[in-house]
Amino acid sequence: MNHHHPNEERLGRRAFLQDSAFFLACAATGLAAGQTPGPGTGPGAAEVDGHNAGPGVPALRIGLVTDLHAADRPPGGERLYREAFPRLREAAERFREAKVDLAVELGDLIDGSGEEAEEELFLRRIEAEFAHFPGPRHRVLGNHCVASLQKRRFLEICGQREARYSFDWGGFHCVILDGCFRADGVPYGGKNFEWTDAELPPQEREWLRADLAAATGKVLVFIHQRLDVATPYAIRSAALVRGILEASGKVLAVFQGHNHLNDHRALGGIHYVTLTALVDGPVQEGGAYAILDVFQDGALRMTGFHRQKDWDLPRLPPPRRRRV
Predict the structure, then answer these.
(1) Domain 57-313 adopts which CATH fold?
(2) What is the pTM of this model?
């Protein structure tokens, strides 16, 4: 399967050193969009779909997918709601074949219908497809996930205890954030919100600060709404949250969805990668998803499938501290 994107803008790439160590000099402004990885040359290079994913063996491999909007309804614009089911099955089977350690779904697993019973049905059906990957599966709450359903009900059906939590794997610390709150701190659920009003309330920001302080490894963050822009697709306190992430000095990257597009920004020594939606695009193009390889030195490489771009993400230097 050809998942490269030859007509899209690509980044320049530095050469591998003779000892196969991965090296990229990254400017203070970060990387440009659209980089496609080249083949790794190190011994034991991990392969994804027939091409190398990087030098050496990754310490952690994660399957990523977002914005499925699974529902039993006719297409709406680019959104092919019914295609979400077979598309997620393909992604889950790819994750299994690639022996990823865990899978993270970045929100909007289902599409809101206005009826709790119908949304529960969509959720049970899409969960059955997700289960084709037998490893640990993590779900980030998206606004459509809790359009009518309450958070506790959504999580109960998925078999997930919390919407906000963290865990360690392969020497890395992973943080799942819940941005599905209104600006007044009220959690989404039961048709009580507008999607443009999203927030990480103060108590979650304080939890994040404490969690990062206690983390002993490099950190990866997963959230549905964006943290790197000031648009309706971002949470209201995005700048405050970025400050917390930067102050920790531990965060390698943030992975997010919601905006239904491929995007990358490097801010404050942290990569912010927005994945495109699985639900969008013609049937013949398939649904977007990715496999993320995390290397011990903090370098990341994301291999995209179908409409999802590939990204090479070297370890960024920390931001310069201003003199006071």
Answers:
(1) Purple Acid Phosphatase; chain A, domain 2 (3.60.21)
(2) 0.84
